[in-house]
Fold Bifunctional chorismate mutase/prephenate dehydratase.
Amino acid sequence: MSDVDRLKALRVRIDSLDEKILELISERARCAQDVARVKTASLADGEEAVFYRPEREAWVLKHIMELNKGPLDNEEMARLFREIMSSCLALEQPLRVAYLGPEGTFSQAAALKHFGQAVISKPMAAIDEVFREVVAGAVNFGVVPVENSTEGAVNHTLDSFLEHDIVICGEVELRIHHHLLVGETTKTDRITRIYSHAQSLAQCRKWLDAHYPNVERVAVSSNADAAKRVKSEWNSAAIAGDMAAQLYGLSKIAEKIEDRPDNSTRFLIIGSQEVPPTGDDKTSIIVSMRNKPGALHELLMPFHSNGIDLTRIETRPSRSGKWTYVFFIDCIGHHQDPLIKDVLEKIGREAVALKVLGSYPKAVL
């Protein structure tokens, strides 16, 4: 058989496989519609159905990755299934998700990575507004940045947890690649101002010092806002990501300018529903301790005694007189696990206040 004939036979096989894939995706979508009907039929008057289950979504994606035998890698296969699941869920009930806007931010990219393209995403002007939208029930979930591998904690998010009663339902990690962007009218040899979010400017500090040491660095509310400003200015550039570049029609004059190649940001999914254990979970808590010698030791000892892995601990200034020390702690495990329950009981006896922000599946993608 000639190469032409072999190629023709392979294309015929691919066409046949595409038809089967289409049939199976359609069958899955019909099953999703049946799930919606079953859930809706069993509701009491005034009760709302819960269509999105974080623990179920996490299990499905992990299961797919376990079954995958290549040649596509696990993460790529999981992303494909994420989009199928997102579209099928939209047939049951489209999710409304708030994120730190405007359009084109890394927060929006994180929201789409976690929930898929079929969600209704709503940009908000500030992190606190994302929290308020979730608390008010205007959206199903919110996506907020909580820490960056280079610059550390996002304090606005931590402070918002002190002010609002909300549940952490999940997390998503996003590799952050920054590019230097310009518009069609930008004179690249006469740039006098570079816009970006303060965190992004900090993450590219060494690169800027080396390449644009005398250019003014202007911190703005978001990278997308920076990209938007550049479109109308001939002497400025912006530091932002791929989504902002595409959305605002900007060109890259330098790619991946972040100082650390492993630069990543962790985002939290906030909502109102408790998430059952999956066997691979994290728990986040807020604790305030009395101002006395050994307070931090008393706080950490129960974790050590029970062999619980701490993944993060942050301290924030108090918001009232009694909250002298406020600790944000992430640990491995679910608050329903016996060892975690024991830790929380021991801490509760010594703490001024203890609040479980939520237990949720560890990031899959």
Q: What stands out?
A: The chain has a mean pLDDT of 92. The longest helix spans residues 3-41.
